[in-house]
Amino acid sequence: MVRVVKIVVRVKLEPSAYQADALAATLRACNRAANHVSEVAFRTGEKRRNGLQSMVYRQVKEDFDLSAQPAVRVVKKVCDAYATLKANVRAGNLGLKGSKRRNKAEAKPISFREDAAQAFDDRCLSWQAAKRTVSIWTTAGRLKGIRFACSEDAAKMIADHRQGESDLLFRDGAWYLFATCDVSVPAPYEPTDWIGVDLGIVNIATTSDGKVLSGRRLERYRKRMRTNVAKLQAKRTKSAKRRLKALRRREQRFATDTNHCISKTIVKTAERTSRGIALEDLTGIRERVKAKHDQRYRLHSWAFAQLGAFVEYKAQRAGVPVVRVNPAHTSRQCSACWHTHKQNRVDQATFACRACGMTMHADVNGSRNIRHRAADAWQRGKVNCPTSAP
């Protein structure tokens, strides 16, 4: 069986003034239609695509000036949004039944911003990767020859592997298209050993080899950005507001680049040594952990899920196996004698076992515990996963 991994490629559109106006009008029409469909779905309780489409299809085409296929995409967009809401409710991401947050989410129809992203399939949008242009349906007719800018690797990826829908997005005064590409990947090999990875805030990632990938540079950048933003917000002048707009998402992009670099280092090391990668399953940690007031910003800006996702998709492309393990007590358990005690963790950086006296960096000790757990999990689960290795 051929294994594939989905890669999202972003390109920047370079439309003319007329083309930009047509694209903006198209997003407005699609999202106004989506709001109408959402109200019908909420009022009638019909969230299934086929049932909802039969109720609103003709009205959406006539009232919002949409063609047949864009009208179908709008209905699917609404159904997907309600499916996501239902999944979040089931997973408890919106709180318990009767909670204020959950009641607020379920008490009204899902709404869409006028400039929210819209998906287009191959009937509405076509790519000419060699010419670096796209042809896209709009409410003003079919626009051909809209140029886009991207790297050579991105253009080759689109030409060779693009599949399915592409999303049109307007952000910070620029137009983008997000293309989904299905890339074939090799089956994961049988690992000779594992690299345990301990994820943290002070040290973003620490491996069982003893390599500490510190978050000090990122923390300094975030502190400087917070200080600058606070000063600009206090000024309340037009020039300060323009500067704040220019700084939007800069911290996010810096953190994303940092996670890309760290994940690439971990995957390359595992691939070179024929080892697998063991990660902690930190799902729901923000709900479980209680942080002091001055630590909440650091906790909620911790992009551990993004780093884990980057490691996993890079590992899939390289054929490196990845295992998620239970992180419970990995910071309190001795990796040498398995003695577990709260006081083994002397401070953030120091681990000293009260039983055998072993001392080392606390995050290195935790990563070695993760490595041991991954080896056990792989051996227990291998007989039930015949496709996990060739």
Structure description:
The longest helix has 28 residues. Helix 6 runs antiparallel to helix 7, helix 6 packs antiparallel against helix 8 and helix 8 runs parallel beside helix 11. The protein folds into 2 domains: 182 residues, no CATH class; 191 residues, Nucleotidyltransferase, domain 5, CATH 3.30.420. It is globular and about 75 Å long. It has 12 helices and 14 strands. By secondary structure, it is an alpha+beta fold. The strands form 3 sheets. The chain has a 7-stranded antiparallel beta sheet with strand order 2-6-7-1-5-4-3. A 5-stranded mixed beta sheet has the order 10-9-8-11-12. A two-stranded antiparallel sheet has the order 13-14.
Number of domains: 2
Helix content: 40-55%
Give the N-to-C terminal Cα separation.
11 Å
Q: Structural class, from helix and strand content?
A: alpha+beta
Enumerate how many helices there are, as a single number. Answer: 12
Do you know the CATH architecture of the largest domain?
Answer: 2-Layer Sandwich
> How are strands sequenced across the largest beta sheet?
2-6-7-1-5-4-3
CATH topology grouping of the largest domain: Nucleotidyltransferase, domain 5
What is the averaged pLDDT score? 89
What fraction of the residues are assigned to beta strands by DSSP? 15-25%
H and E string = EHHHHEEEEHEEEEEHHHEHHHEEEH
Low-confidence stretches: 383-390
Largest sheet properties: 7 strands, antiparallel
Radius of gyration: 25 Å
CATH C-level name of the largest domain: Alpha Beta
Q: Could you give the count of β-strands?
A: 14
